[in-house]
Amino acid sequence: MRKNSIKNIRINQEVQKELSNLIRTEVKDPRISPLTTVVNVEVAPDLKTAKVYISVYGDEKAQADTIKGLKSAAPFLRSQLAHNMNMRNTPELHFIGDQSIEYGVNMSHLIDEITADLKDDENSDDEN
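^ that's the sequence the OP posted. Answer follows.
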């Protein structure tokens, strides 16, 4: 099975959806932030491992604590994944922090500031 085959893409999406649901409803670790998002999942073609990209809205400490909590909950999540999904192999989960959502929010704030400055400059030019 090629890495970008239709089957692999479908498995990635299903594992992402199932992990999101499990993290939100089943995991009770207080280290895991309630503002945790599963951004992407890359399951290896042999279904042995999966890279799970996690985004946490908050500071660096919240992200680090969430990653630690998810790593300790990985065996539980893997067993639940095996129970809920009909797969030949259940992948070993590797959690990786992802900053893309936070980066997007920061970029949006910067764009808003620039457009506000441009509007202010236009208003001051109209007055002169």
